[in-house]
Structure formats: structure tokens, C-alpha cells
Give the backbone structure.
Amino acid sequence: LLGAALLGQVAAGGAGAPAAAATPSSLTFDAQKYTLGSVVVDGRTVQYRAYENILYVTNPVDRKYQSMNVYVPVQYFAGQSVGGYTASTAPIFLPNEVGGYMPGLPGTPTANMGGDAIRAALAHGYVVASPGARGRTGKDASGRFTGKAPAAIVDLKAAVAYLHFNDARMPGNAERIVSNGTSAGGALSALLGASGDNRDYQPYLKALGAAPASTAIYAVSAYCPITNLEHADAAYEWQFSGVNDYEQLKFAMDTDYKMQRTLVKGTLTAAQIAVSNDLKAQFIPYLNGLHLRNGAQPLTLDASGNGTFRTYVASLIRDSAQKALDAGTDLSKVTYLTVKDGRVTDVDFGAYARSILRMKTPAAFDGLSLENGENDEFGTATVAARHFTAYSQQHTAVPATQADPLTVKLMNPMAYVQAPGTRTAAHWRIRVGTADKDTSLAVSAILATTLRASGRSVDYALPWNVPHSGDYDLPELFRWIDTAVK
Ligand code: DHB
């Protein structure tokens, strides 16, 4: 928090709040251990203090990833304000750099990837804390995997606990932490927001020696979250059933943990179409069992997968198209839209799915040959990959075991919204582009409507024609944050 009264103390040696003296610990933030940096944002030089590679647990498994970079606009050490914020009121922007459920390093303002958001956030007056997190490919010296589920979410929670623990010693308000992430990182951002302070994670946090403090955050920004994994196969086939051509992106990692993507085209086999039909059929009772609503309207599906839920998802695409049309975008060649007198009056959801094409083959996430990143995410210290749904375990094409229910639950925000003893974030911003086919639009629609029903404020929209990506609308994101933190 770093109130004005503490500024002198911190500048003089970082004694901090009384709690610091009473709890000497390697988890105590040292305000003197910094370097100075600067970046140019929109022609303006932004100077900051960089506190880099702060270990956020006392018992690390992987020091490289279980550490955090904190960046603070220099004005906050001189009693000045930036963009209306002070050292005690500035929100803490918490971007993670996780992609593909791979290990994510702490972000920096000078990085190509993720750096944009950090630079812009500093210029805007936010304190930036970017935690690293373990991921599915991490190994220790003896070759054991160290980052399988739930490692990534436990690490992000430990980083949040560090920020709460040190709130009085640090600039920025730990009661106003705003998480940000894209794809797998968006899923983790949502999970962090959904599951604040839930006890299920305590044994893992304790084992790592996380700071004894809250893991709750105030707000979530999630771009195209690859989440609700154990229902994502069914949701994918509900959306893409009958779309038998695919354009698949194959992932491979280079030595820098950078994802390389190659496009593979194909057509589903008869066996894959049978799996698609099975999975689509599973989605209907799942969706109906959620008892979702849009306002007063129940969102349901009939036996063929049509109904008010499908109309609701189509209406999100309609709203997106209308916004694009109002901004002057030419939609005359978009065959799945009906446009009359400047109004988008109808979206043919089936034609939309056929037009964007499927990218994944069934089962899209819990692959029958354990071939997907998500299978790898649910491995163990000694088992590279596992199934995480009963269907794929039953239909497995290779010898395989299934992840235990608790591990699967620990990775799913849907399990924690409104759970007893849980502080779910109050403010949510969820963005998924209409050109995104990495997961079904149903996944974010279910999350957003569930959060709204639980009383959270949710800003959910599908930006027109945007593919699987994030951080493409930072000025709007920051406007939303500024409103949410007031
Ligand atoms: C990501 C993309 C995917 O399609 C997926 O299944 C998991 C993660 C990603 O980009 O992070």
C-alpha cells in the first residue's frame, strides 16, 4: 500500500510496517533492492523502479519460475501522483505470461511478448507485478516433472499472497489487484479470480512456503480463456458438430520455450465424427444442468442442441458485428449475417461455425491418444500425460490413466464461483474474438453468465474478427480497470 507516512521509512531503508519487524522473513519486500529503468510510451519517457526476480515462496521447486518482477513508477517514491493514483491507491496490474500451459517467466517492460501491456500499465500509473509460474514441461535435475496441474495456479496464488503480505511495504494497493492473461494465461487469470482464499489450495501453498496472507484479487481480465477443460471437448463439438474440415495449429516448442505453430489441414474420419456426436450429446445435459440465465431468460438447449443458449451466443456475435458495422467495417461478404438498413438482424450460428472452420479434432482437449497440451498439463511428477474426462479415459487409444477429481477441480474456475469460504473477484472483463476457434464460445459464455448470476460485474464481449490473442485493446482495458477500482 505504501501510504505517504511510510514513504520516508521506505526511502530510508525499508523498515516498513510493524508487521515487518515482527515477521523477519525472506518474503519481506525490500524496497531498497531495485534498479532504475525507463521505457518510451507514446513518445513519453516513463521511469520506474524495477524489483526483479523476487522469490515469492520460501521453499521453491523452481526458482526461475517461482519469482516475480515488480515495477513501480518513480513518482510514487516522491509523493507524487500518476493518472490520479498515488502510492497508496494505485491498482496492482498482475499480468502473467503463461501460454499453452507452459512455464511462464515473469514479464518485463522491455520484452517483446507481454511488454506492451506492462509498459502501457506503468505509463498509466499502475504498479505492475508480473509473476512467473511453473508449467507442464518443467523438470527438476532428476527428470521429474515439477509443473503439472495445479502448479501454475498455486504459483500465481503464492505471488498474490506475497503482495498482500507486503501491502504496507509496497507501493500499490493489494486490495486492488487486477489479474491479466491470455489463453492458458487467461484461464489462470480467471481461476485466480474465481478461487480467492479457497482452502483447497492451502496444502500446496503451505508446502511451497507461501506468505501467510490472502490469495484474493479484486478484478480479472481474461482474454480467450482456455478453461473449463473437462467440459471443453463437449462444448467444442456442440459448436462445430457437422464441420468436418479442420485447419489445425500444431504446437512445438523451441529451445526458448517459444511456441512455434504450423498449420495442418484435414477432414474428420468416420471414427472422429462418431466421437464428435457423442461429445455434442454430452454438452446438452451439462448446459441444462447449469441453469444459466441471461437476465430473466433461462438459457437452455433442446435434444438437437438448439435453444435459448444457442440464440444467446449468436446474439453476442450479432452485437459484435453491429459494433463493427457502426465503425464502418464492410460486412457485405459475411454470409452468416443478415443485415437490413444498417442493423445486424440475424446470425446463423451453424453457418458461422462452418465459415470459421474447426481447428481441433475430437476430443479437442482430452485427446484420445493423450496428444494435447491439456493431457500434458494433467500429468504427474512421473507420468507425462493423463486423461481428465471419463469419456476420453473410456475411449482411450493408448494405455492411460485419469487425473484425480480434485486436481481437475483445482484448475476449473466454474468449481469456485460462489463456493463457500471463497472470495471470488468482484469485477470481470472477458474478451474472446469472433475468429477464435481454440475453444468453443460456449466456454466463455458459461463463465460470464455464471459470474453475473453470482452478482459479479461482468463486461463480456466478442471483438469482431479478432483471432486467438490478447492485450489488443489496452486503452479500453485500462478505462475498465479505472472504473472498476474506484
Ligand atoms: C493455448 C491455446 C490452445 O488452443 C490450448 O488448447 C491451450 C492453450 C494457448 O495459446 O495458451
Summary: The pocket of 3,4-dihydroxybenzoic acid is lined by residues 99-101, 183-184, 226, 373, 438 (CB under 6 Å).
